[in-house]
């Protein structure tokens, strides 16, 4: 009887020893968490992303510029045939945004056949990027094709695509992808706006300047650049240059963070407009050339 | 004796193994279901953007600020859902950043009883949502607030 008891006691000791050894690393983490929970000292913690932001949809930007006089001009948008030039993930993301902005521009100006071509390009890029779920197979494309004369329905389809993209990037923690796509759309919208803006249309110029207020958030989001992509690094530098041009505008002088610029009635000089337009055009050329 | 030793061994093993399993952190966030409710509340406004803010309740008060870009002349509606929270979070909307001494409080959820609620700003300009997550000594829990931004559809149409 005694040897049997000793044998099982030995197993018990070995088991306990192994359990203790095997749990070392996990215990450390758990202890931290538990200590964190029962500690009674209450203090304010700065969350990892204490400052966060929401970016508007490309459709929203296009519609605001459209109401301010952004009319359709043939040949301004990026050719949908250029899609073959986009080989890297980053160029696909940026041009997903560019085509989204072109698609919104075409829909709002009722160039719906052209809009359909952009919709197909956006779909192809989304498949390449693993975002095909946002199009719910082919149903959105089919619905788009079947409603080319119904602007309101086309707008609803663009909204659905945006909402699905937001859900996908949120659920898959792809916030960086979202800000890259948005940056492509933003640059294209600014390009279209600056090309169409004329001296007479001061309202459109003011609304373009209003768009500069989201630059900080774009720069902040792009700067995370998890793969240290050189194209993104350059884009950050370029957008910082755009920000410097904007901050140098005469109408922005003396403004503090608490001031609210009157973008509806803001005017910019021809030199200021040229400086902004040239920079935006250069950034856009870099993006659409892949 | 052999039986008793075996029982003892089994008991200790069970205790040992169960202590190995980390206490599961309860996550109350069900974003896809909650989004549907927010979308219903958004009507007749149209979807523009959204943000799911996830929180882990700890023994410290936590703060988060979200900048919302609103464009002049547009009409917006904010929809919030706190359904995915294990305990209340303070939600406040200000006209300026938390670093500004001149900022004004435009909205607070302190008087709101519903899990879903809306806010329509009088003026369209940048606004700031502030979440204050209270400290808790309870077990670790996770949750989220869903925010959806909508705009008035007629603003899509070009001015006559």
Q: Which class do the helix and strand fractions of chain B yield?
A: alpha+beta
Low-confidence stretches of chain B: none
* Average residue pLDDT of chain A: 85
Question: How many DSSP-defined strands of chain A?
Answer: 1
Cα separation of the termini of chain B: 96 Å
Largest sheet of chain A: none
Q: Helix and strand string of chain A, N-terminal first?
A: HHEHHHHHHHHHH
**Structural class from helices and strands of chain A?**
mainly alpha
Terminal Cα span of chain A: 81 Å
Question: What global shape of chain A is seen?
Answer: globular
User: Biggest β-sheet of chain B, characterized?
Assistant: 5 strands, mixed
Q: Share of helix among residues of chain A?
A: 55-70%
- Shape field of chain B: elongated
Q: What is the residue-mean pLDDT of chain B, rounded to a whole number?
A: 86
Helix segment count of chain A? 12
Q: Which ranges of chain A are low-confidence, i.e. pLDDT below 50, for 5 or more consecutive residues?
A: 16-42
Number of helices of chain B: 2
Question: What is the helix content of chain B?
Answer: 10-25%
Would you kindly provide a written description of the structure presented here, covering whatever features stand out?
The complex is a heterodimer of chains A (290) and B (160). With 290 residues, chain A is mainly alpha-helical. Helix content of chain A is 65%, strand content 3%. The radius of gyration of chain A is 26 Å and the shape is globular. Chain A starts with a helix and ends with a helix. In chain A, 36% of the residues are buried. Residues 16-42 of chain A have low confidence and may be disordered. With 160 residues, chain B is of the alpha+beta class. Chain B is 19% helix and 37% strand. Chain B is built from two helices and nine strands, in the order H-E-H-E-E-E-E-E-E-E-E. In chain B, the strands form two sheets. In chain B, strands 1, 2, 4, 7 and 9 form a five-stranded mixed beta sheet that branches. In chain B, strands 3-8-5-6 form a four-stranded antiparallel beta sheet, with no helix packed on it. The longest helix of chain B is centred in the N-terminal third of the chain and has 19 residues, at 2-20. Chains A and B meet through helix 1, helix 2, strand 1, helix 3 and helix 7 of A and helix 1, helix 2, strand 2, strand 3 and strand 9 of B.
């Amino acid at each position: 009887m005694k040897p049997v008891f000793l044998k099982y006691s030995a197993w018990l000791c070995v088991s306990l020893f192994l359990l203790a050894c095997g749990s070392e690393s996990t215990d450390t983490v758990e202890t931290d968490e538990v200590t964190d929970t029962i500690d009674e000292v209450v203090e304010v913690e700065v969350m990892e992303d204490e400052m966060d932001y929401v970016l508007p949809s490309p459709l929203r930007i296009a519609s605001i510029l459209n109401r301010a006089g952004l009319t359709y001009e043939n040949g301004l948008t990026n050719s949908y045939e250029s899609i073959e030039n986009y080989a890297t993930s980053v160029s696909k993301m940026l041009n997903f945004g560019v085509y989204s902005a072109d698609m919104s521009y075409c829909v709002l100006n009722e160039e719906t056949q052209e809009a359909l071509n952009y919709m197909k390009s956006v779909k192809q890029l989304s498949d390449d990027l693993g975002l095909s779920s946002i199009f719910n197979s082919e149903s959105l494309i089919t619905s788009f094709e079947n409603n080319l004369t119904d602007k309101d329905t086309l707008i609803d389809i663009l909204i659905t695509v945006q909402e699905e993209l937001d859900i996908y990037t949120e659920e898959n923690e792809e916030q960086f992808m979202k800000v890259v796509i948005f940056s492509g759309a933003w640059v294209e919208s600014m390009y279209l706006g600056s090309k169409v803006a004329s001296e007479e249309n001061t309202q459109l110029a003011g609304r373009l300047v209003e768009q500069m207020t989201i630059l900080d958030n774009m720069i902040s989001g792009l700067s995370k650049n998890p793969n240290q992509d050189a194209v993104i690094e350059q884009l950050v530098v370029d957008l910082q240059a755009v920000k410097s041009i904007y901050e140098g505008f005469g109408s922005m002088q003396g403004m503090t963070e608490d001031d609210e610029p009157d973008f509806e009635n803001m005017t910019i000089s021809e030199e200021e407009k040229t400086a902004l337009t040239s920079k935006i055009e250069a950034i856009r050329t870099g993006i659409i050339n892949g | 004796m052999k039986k008793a030793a075996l029982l003892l061994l089994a008991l200790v093993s069970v205790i040992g193994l169960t202590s190995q399993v980390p206490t599961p952190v309860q996550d109350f966030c069900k974003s896809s279901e909650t989004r549907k409710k927010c979308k219903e509340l958004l009507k007749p406004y149209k979807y523009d953007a959204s943000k799911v803010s996830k929180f882990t309740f700890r023994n410290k008060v936590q703060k988060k600020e979200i900048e919302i870009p609103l464009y002049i002349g547009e009409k917006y509606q904010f929809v919030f859902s706190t359904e995915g929270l294990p305990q209340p979070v303070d939600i406040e909307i200000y006209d300026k950043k938390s670093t500004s001494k001149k900022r004004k409080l435009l909205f607070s959820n302190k008087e709101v009883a519903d899990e879903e609620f809306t806010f329509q700003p009088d003026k369209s300009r940048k606004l700031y949502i502030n979440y204050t997550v209270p400290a808790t000594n309870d077990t670790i829990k996770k949750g989220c607030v869903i925010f959806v931004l909508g705009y008035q559809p007629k603003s899509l149409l070009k001015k006559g």
